[in-house]
Write a structure and sequence with these properties.
2 copies of one chain form a homodimer. By secondary structure, chain A is an alpha/beta fold. The first copy, chain A, folds into 3 domains: 12-56, lambda repressor-like DNA-binding domains (434 Repressor (Amino-terminal Domain)); 66-173 and 308-337, Rossmann fold (3-Layer(aba) Sandwich), CATH 3.40.50.2300; 175-306, Response regulator (Rossmann fold, 3-Layer(aba) Sandwich). Chain A has helices spanning 12-19, 23-30, 39-52, 58-65, 81-96, 110-121, 140-153, 175-188, 204-218, 236-249, 262-274, 308-321, 326-329; strands at 70-75, 100-105, 127-131, 157-162, 169-173, 194-198, 229-231, 256-259, 284-286, 303-305, 333-336, 339-341. In chain A, the strands form 3 sheets. The first copy, chain A, has a 6-stranded parallel sheet with strand order 2-1-3-4-5-11, with helices on both faces. Chain A has a 4-stranded parallel sheet with strand order 7-6-8-9. Chain A has a two-stranded antiparallel sheet with strand order 10-12. In chain A, helix 1 crosses helix 3 and helix 8 (175-188) runs parallel beside helix 9 (204-218). The termini of chain A are far apart. Chains A and B meet through helix 4, helix 5, strand 2, helix 6 and helix 7 of A and helix 4, helix 5, strand 2, helix 6 and helix 7 of B. The structure holds a DNA duplex (16 and 16 nucleotides).
DNA sequence: CTGTTAGCGCGTTCAA
DNA sequence: TTGAACGCGCTAACAG
């Protein structure tokens, strides 16, 4: 008996031999779409497979068939609840179709994103889903589009979850309208003096939300003083630091701080708390996304709901919908509704 | 010119032809570990590859080499911050090694877990990492072990993040000791009357933490009244409902509620708040895990820190450490330290 | 150092 | 229906 040296997995060949049938018959019994195999043989093959603990080699299947069952998912940061909720939706939808999900993390770097897309192409995934705000002006952007286009041209499906405008299937969140609706609701609740905590200027998501919010206020003749618009990283800590800067700069009579994401809003709330400022007693806060924890912080966070898991699900559906007719559908867009959620962090005043 | 019908990706063969060299030379230029290729040729191959937008086919490479660069990761729920933080650690460590991560979600079902492990074997991953509490007594457990053993026997590495005891590499969190230390700290802070919010009885993690907590109290002659131990799903909502049951059953003079996970603790805090019970004024709360949001809820949550991202990183390291010498190391165990973090949800009394 | 050739594990034609 | 043979894209001997 050989030593404990690792044996290699049983192959289809082994199964066929063990069952006393041909390779082709074994293949057909184990996978063959339309089964046209004698039931006796089938059973013998199945038994042999079980006996040998056979597991089909996906790589070999992919090479033989010329296609995989893989969905590649690119996120900025999987520990961020925004992305992890979307990922949950993607994975659930993919698994329902028998697809495997591979995941890569850009850590919010557009260069890294490009690298990863390049690498991911090697997997020959059926679908590539990119999530995370586009940031324009980056030098990688053109290269990224080229890479994605090359992928799409060779039969791959690309779906973006973010902003429209790129020539690929896109699941779009109407950040502008959502933020404008939020502004309107907050004005209706009696707020008049606002500050904003934003991400970096190039981030389209952040920019759209700020613009929507500002325009919503403008409808009521309200403007945010430029000193009251502070920027930081698009993370919890970024929100914390931006809010700290805001506090240091003097809050004047600001009544409500709008953060362009819940994650930033939660960071901002922590900063306010640490500065001894009561929320919402001294100052109210609102965010955007409606991540799970938005309802669990105290006070519960006013925000704009996005059906995050749905985003992921619909991205998969969009990708899989039109395997045919790729000509015109390439730039298909699904628009997802947002909904203002008023909670205790912005009581009527 | 052909229609817009999707062309197939350029192959190595195409590149070789375009560069005017042999297949082997092209292969060596593009991947060959120890480069022993004339620089002129190399450049020509690289240029051809760029021109044709060549991307190596990982599946074909895997078939030819007989091994992949894949890490398969199994989690209970990627939207749960506990798992998403671990996943972040796994992905970061894997990407640093040039490995691709595939992810599957069990949705806390042991049957589903078994199915997925079976399916994942088809990928021939180098490593399979399972996270999530073992739950004993499940009928799938034996089959799961068999499946994992088969995988390990054919050269795969298995690493569990959870409880030790299974014959695979394991990253172990000392739940028992951590909970006991927490109990001691809370008694030192002046608490005497406790309730516990737990997961289902079969979940080893939940059980270990409860046992540690109870034993820690016992050192001080304190016991938790059986009526004050409530159970629910190992989720935020499970914590909410368990706490609601606790409230309905009468809190008597309970001073602190210990939830066996932060996620449950946060659910419990919401239930308490909704019942008009002030935390920590009326009743204190403590959790376990130290997920990111633990510090952002109000009051900030007392808990036991686990270095979650590190868990993932160390699991990858453990898996990759001993490709040799598989005999004795198979059941290698890495023990991770925990640390009590007292926060505002359990002020001294 | 280069090119030729034989596989890797499997799907799928094509005859039988 | 079944089986033999070829090919998928690539790596790794082997020979030049």
């Amino acid at each position: 008996m050989a030593a404990s040296s690792s044996a290699s997995p049983a192959t289809l060949h082994d199964v066929a031999r063990d069952a006393g049938v041909s390779l082709a018959t074994a293949s057909r019994s184990l996978n063959g779409s339309t089964r046209k195999v004698n039931e006796d043989y089938r059973q013998r093959v199945l038994a042999a497979a079980a006996r040998l603990n056979y597991s089909p080699n996906f790589s070999a299947q992919a090479v033989a068939k010329g296609s995989t069952s893989t969905v590649a998912l690119l996120v900025s940061d999987i520990a961020d609840p925004y992305f992890s909720s979307i990922a949950a939706g993607v994975i659930r939808a993919a698994e329902a179709q028998g697809l495997i999900v591979t995941m890569a993390v850009t850590e919010r770097s557009t260069e890294r994103e490009l690298e990863l897309v390049r690498a991911l192409r090697g997997q020959r995934p059926r679908v590539m889903i990119l999530t995370g705000s586009r940031s324009d002006g980056s030098t990688s952007q053109a290269a990224l589009i080229a890479e994605l286009t090359a992928f799409a041209r060779t039969g791959g499906r690309v779906v973006l979850i973010s902003q429209e405008g790129l020539p690929f299937g896109t699941v779009v969140v109407d950040n502008y309208l959502g933020a404008r609706a939020l502004a309107n609701s907050l004005v209706a609740a009696g707020y008049r003096r606002f500050a904003a905590v934003c991400g970096e200027r190039a981030l389209v998501t952040s920019r759209d939300r700020l613009a929507g919010f500002a325009d919503g206020l403008a409808e009521h003749g309200i403007a945010i003083h430029p000193d009251h618009v502070v920027r930081g990283e698009f993370t919890r800590d970024g929100g914390f630091e931006a809010a700290a800067a805001l506090i240091a700069g003097g809050l004047d009579q600001v009544e409500l701080v709008f953060a362009v994401s819940d994650v930033m809003a939660i960071g901002a709330m922590s900063a306010l708390r640490e500065a001894g400022i009561d929320v919402p007693g001294d100052i109210a806060v609102a965010g955007f996304d409606d991540i799970d924890t938005a309802r669990d912080v105290t006070p519960a966070l006013t925000t704009v709901n996005i059906p995050l898991a749905d985003l992921g699900r619909r991205a998969v559906e969009l990708a899989l919908s039109d395997a045919t007719d790729v000509t015109d559908v390439t730039d298909q867009v699904i628009r997802v509704e947002t909904r203002v959620i008023l909670r205790a962090s912005s009581p009527p005043r």
